[in-house]
Amino acid sequence: MKTWDVVVIGGGPAGLAAAAAARKQGIEDVLILERDQMLGGILNQCIHNGFGLHTFKEELTGPEYADRFIKVVEELKIPYHLNTMVLSISKDKQVTYMNREEGLVTIQAKTVVLAMGCRERSRGALNIPGFRPAGVYSAGTAQRLTNMEGKKVGREVVILGSGDIGLIMARRMTLEGAKVKVVAELMPYSGGLKRNIVQCLNDYGIPLKLSHTVVEIHGKERVTGITLAQVDDHRKPIPGTEEYYSCDTLLLSVGLIPENELTRGLGADVSRVTSGPEVNDHLETSVPGVFACGNVLHVHDLVDYVSEEAAMAGQAAAEYVKELAEREKYAGKTDAETSALGDGEEVPMSEGHQSLVRLSAENGVRYTVPQYLDPKHMKDQIIVRFRVDNVYKNRSISVYYDGVKIQTRKKRVMAPGEMEQVILKKDSFGDYPDLKKITICTEEE
Ligand SMILES: Cc1cc2nc3c(=O)[nH]c(=O)nc-3n(C[C@H](O)[C@H](O)[C@H](O)COP(=O)(O)OP(=O)(O)OC[C@H]3O[C@@H](n4cnc5c(N)ncnc54)[C@H](O)[C@@H]3O)c2cc1C
What we know:
Elements lengths: L2 E7 L3 H12 L5 E4 L15 E3 L8 E2 H14 L4 E2 L3 E5 L4 E6 L3 E12 L3 E3 L15 E3 H9 L8 E5 L3 H12 L3 E7 L8 H8 L6 E3 L1 E7 L6 E6 L12 E4 L2 E4 L3 E3 L2 H6 L23 E3 L10 H28 L4 H7 L15 E6 L2 E5 L2 E2 L7 E8 L3 E10 L2 E11 L5 E6 L11 E8 L1
Flavin-adenine dinucleotide (FAD) binds next to α1, β3, β6, α3 and α4.
């Protein structure tokens, strides 16, 4: 069985950045496995601009942004298999995949980087009454049909869900000549970025109805209309608020879920909030040597953060491989032989998350990534990313170490659609050698 140092699963922006970072750390043996027929992931269907503002200080389209990373992977001559579906990963890091040329293959990896992205929540998860007529699509499917396959999806459209894909598709369908009648959102706030509400709805006069949901889909063969109703504080439809909209197409943009089947099959701990694996400050899952990044870890708002995080995962995988090599060098040697050989400080190999400090998300913070931290062996600083659970105005984001406030920062507005972050510095842990808990929370001013 062929052994690879780093096997990256998924050739989207996360997988590309992770593979490039591992190679730049001097790891020769890096392989990318991608189930689609091209690299680039979901970005290939995102032909709107707005990508890369942070990374390149330019407004790129999705394919342009992906192309910059594909070029790096090609310049570094990192091998990749396309049309290759990874079926399973075992705890001892055997990766089984399938493609037409090779059939079913199992390879041994020293480290694995999970970068499988996420998928859209489907109609089945919503239980909307009605028949199952044609014309109900997830927003991402409609995006792929329109942007990659040149199909016209519909003429009169209602969109349920105001996450970024729903907002972007409201504009896209309008540009394709369709009439987007309304975007309905169950929550009292939009799940998308503010800039997308302005640029995709307001600029085109498309109404956004917050605290509304679709209670019935009409039509047997093809959608003929939908009934929309307002919901109360418990998200239950309010009788008497029903409104009928005629339409031939209903797009659902009702949430993204990390592609976590391989993660679960591997036996890694999965967060109940993010549905992605729980990771430490090296983005390592509870299975030592398996790292995760991008939307498979938690759903990101901007791809720039995906690339940045994935580069860290690739670097951490490379360090793991080097540490394994060091250990092999010392294996079976006496202390005297070891000290004659060695120089640098020995970094303990991870053994899961049990002995690490847990980050606790409280009072308005839904989750943090990473969920665990090793203050003794962390980098000089780490970025902790998180989302809040509601729209908050004039609150602070605070960090506590075992109940002692360490830092606080005022924020005028925070919304679930936008990721937030705090930076934790290694030297801030000096006075807390027996630290048990790091709390990240919002606080009233
Ligand atoms: C509609 C839409 C609009 C967006 N707009 C913006 C925007 O304007 N600006 C911005 O910055 N960001 C935007 N984003 C977000 C950005 O595109 C994502 O954050 C980014 O693409 C996530 O990268 P990823 O590599 O984690 O996932 P993906 O791009 O989804 O890549 C994952 C890859 O893994 C592969 N894969 C999955 N499972 C397997 C398997 N078992 N075997 C082999 N391969 C597998 C998939 O085929 C895929 O290629 C948008 C996203 C969407 C969906």
